[in-house]
Design goal:
8 strands; alpha+beta; 2 domains; 179 residues; Alpha-Beta Plaits; 30% helix
Length: 179
């Protein structure tokens, strides 16, 4: 039985509300084991048998049936998260910098050789892996960190030339999902 992490896209926004206790109970009732939600933003760790594709489809159907709206799932194995953490994607950052760290995770692989133009000192793309983009958002004079992310990523989505399933998480969340 493998350990998996499901990162749910676009929940607890507007009418797309999902209580984590209800989600946990829903998954447990369907046979998922060792279900644990991490924070209230749609991060679920569980154990289950099956391929990534089969588990993703099962989760998406289960949540649509239970909660009444479609939920995209970006699924990673425990080993993939361990490798992500071991890769230290934010090692190049000045430890004293006033910055927030995020990872943008995609369901499908990104095109080889993909480059995204960043804005140094504002929104920096630190690394692009096959399905993940690591982003640093620096504190701006207005006190915000990530308001420039959308502008930096807009050309990326235009180049991908199709709708893609992705979800962004604060790196602090990634550091907690295995505990």
């Amino acid at each position: 039985m493998g350990v998996w992490l499901a990162f749910l896209r676009g929940i607890n926004l507007g009418k797309r509300q999902m209580k984590m206790a209800e989600l946990r109970a829903c998954l447990e009732a369907d046979g998922f084991a060792e279900v644990k939600t991490v924070l209230a933003s749609g991060n679920v760790r569980f154990s289950a048998e099956g391929s990534a594709a089969a588990l993703k489809a099962r989760l998406e159907k289960l949540m649509a049936d239970r909660f009444g709206f479609a939920v995209g799932v970006v699924l990673r194995s425990e080993d993939e998260i361990k490798a992500m953490l071991a890769g230290h994607p934010f090692a190049s950052l000045d430890p004293k910098a006033d910055v927030t760290r995020h990872v943008l995770m995609f369901e499908q692989a990104l095109p080889a050789g993909l480059q995204v133009e960043d804005r140094p000192g504002h929104t920096e793309i630190l690394r692009i892996d096959p399905r993940d983009i690591y982003i640093a958002g620096y504190r701006q004079p207005n006190g915000r960190y990530t308001e420039g992310v959308e502008d930096v990523l807009k050309p990326l989505y235009a180049r991908l030339d199709k709708p893609v399933l992705d979800t962004m998480r604060n790196w602090n969340t990634i550091e907690k999902v295995l505990t």
